[in-house]
Design a protein that fits this description.
Helix content is about 75%, strand content about 0%. The chain is mainly α. The protein has a domain of about 45 residues. The longest helix has 22 residues. The N and C termini lie far apart (about 50 Å).
């Protein structure tokens, strides 16, 4: 089965087996983060971020919980979304930039 072409505003439909494999891989990365974190350098942070990206891309429950956490801590949630290059953060940033440029022009 091939992937559907990307259209903005519509999530990409991936094969269920691939989606489950990515979800399990993300969970394993988050679980193994403490083992990597004891090594020198920022490896633990990168492993955790990679795991969270895979989990959030493939789990509706995780996305709902992430949205709830972001509402409670908007400053931290917005920062993490920008660092993970999430589509919602990119759209929000472009919208805010356009509003600032429009206000500056007036």
């Amino acid at each position: 089965m091939t992937e559907a072409p990307y259209t903005p505003g519509r999530p990409v439909q991936r094969h269920p087996v691939r989606r489950q494999a990515e979800l399990i891989g993300g969970i394993l990365l988050v679980i193994f983060t403490p083992a990597v974190a004891i090594l020198p350098g920022p490896g633990g942070t990168l492993v955790f971020a990679g795991g969270m990206v895979l989990i959030l891309r493939n789990s509706r429950l995780a996305r709902r919980r992430w949205a709830r956490i972001k509402r409670g801590y908007p400053r931290i949630g917005g920062f993490v979304d920008r660092m993970m290059r999430r589509g919602s953060a990119l759209r929000r940033r472009a919208r805010d930039k356009a509003l600032q440029e429009g206000a500056a022009a007036n």
